[in-house]
Amino acid sequence: AVVSTQSTGDQNMFDSKKKLKIATTDTVRTKLAASQTNSIDFNSCLLSFYTNQLEQVKKKSLQLKEAGSPLAPLLLATLLVREKKFEDALKALQEGNSPEEVVQLSIAELMKKTGSYCDSADALKKVLSISKRPGAISLMASLTLLGAGPEAAADYLDAAMEELRNSGKYTNEEITGWALQCAKFCLAHDMPEKAAQNLENLLARDSSNIKALALLIRSYSLFDAPRAHEVALRLPDIDIPADIDLEQLEIGVGVTSGRGLRKVIQPEEEKINEANRRIETKKKK
After folding, report:
1. How far apart are CA 99 and CA 104, in angstroms?
2. Residue 97 Ramachandran class (φ > 0 left, ψ -120 to 50 alpha, else beta)
3. Which pTM value belongs to this model?
4. pLDDT tens digit sequence for 205-214
5. Is the torsion defined by CA of 166, 170, 171, 172 positive or negative?
6. pLDDT digits over 163-214, tens only?
7. What is the full DSSP assignment across 160-205?
């Protein structure tokens, strides 16, 4: 039996109650498997929740718990969250010890809400269907950053990248792109040595990657200038078309850059200011 629990409109609620009434008759229940019965009882709890019959929800949740339903703790936690009792809701979910992924995701969310960021990341790792995906890895890295700082987040990213690389599920292009992002993360959080190490490992696999080489030069320039110069020598020569005038190009860059613009604009501003001063002087006379 499929019971609609959409909360959009009285007609939907009426239809849901009607379907539940049919599905919960003794004649129907005796023909259902235990998993189907649990699903119907769970839907019944949800309907009571949407219709604000909170005492009924508590009663049915306890019945589901006694019946061994893995989703029973989720219902109890939902009631507690509604009352803004986040710590109690988290405790209810943890004591339920349910293996259901939706419960683990709820635990992770409540841990994040209560400021336990590292614990939230650990809870997400238990959700095997998503824990090895790049998006989830990014989320867990962000939580680790909030809870334990950039060094711990960078270490987590290193381990996660190694797993992605060894999984064989992703292309070299994808792995390289993520590795570059990890290096940028290290640079953004004042860890140029770690960024350089990661980039050296990347270039050992793909020596022709110009983006990695450029980031490596930038990384070394922050703590080892001679090494940055050595790496810069590995940059390939650039073929410049014969019809490009380098002198004119340099002049153009000088004029349109910030300093160049100031050189052009400031004298003009000084002339205008001088003219204004002369006008003011004449008015006073």
Report:
1. 7
2. left
3. 0.67
4. 888 899 999 9
5. negative
6. 998 888 889 899 999 999 999 999 999 999 999 999 999 999 888 899 999 9
7. HHHHHHHHS-S-HHHHHHHHHHHHHHHHHTT-HHHHHHHHHHHHHH
Closest CA to 202 of 228, 227, 224, 173: 173
The residues, any chain, with a CB within 8 Å of residue 156's CB and separated by 6 or more, are 121, 140, 141, 144
Tens-of-pLDDT digits for all 285 residues of the chain? 344 444 444 456 556 666 666 656 666 666 666 667 777 777 777 777 777 777 877 787 777 777 777 777 888 888 888 888 899 889 988 887 777 888 889 999 999 998 999 999 999 988 888 888 888 999 999 999 999 999 999 999 999 999 998 888 889 899 999 999 999 999 999 999 999 999 999 999 888 899 999 999 999 999 999 999 999 988 887 777 777 776 776 666 554 444 444 444 445 455 556 656 666 665 555
Report how far residue 69's alpha carbon sits from residue 284's, in angstroms, rounded to the nearest whole number.
Answer: 92
Token digits of residue 178: 């993520």
Three-class SS of residue 227? helix
Asked if 192 and 228 count as a contact pair (C-beta separation under 8 A), the reply is no
Question: What region, left, alpha or beta, does residue 6 occupy, with left being phi > 0 and alpha being psi -120 to 50 degrees?
Answer: beta
Amino acid identity, position 135: G
Which residue matches tokens 């390289």?
A: 176
CB-side neighbour CA atoms (13 Å) of 138: 8
The one-letter code for the residue type at 49 is F
Distance CA 113, CA 97 (A): 20
**CA–CA gap between residue 65 and residue 67 (Å, rounded):** 5
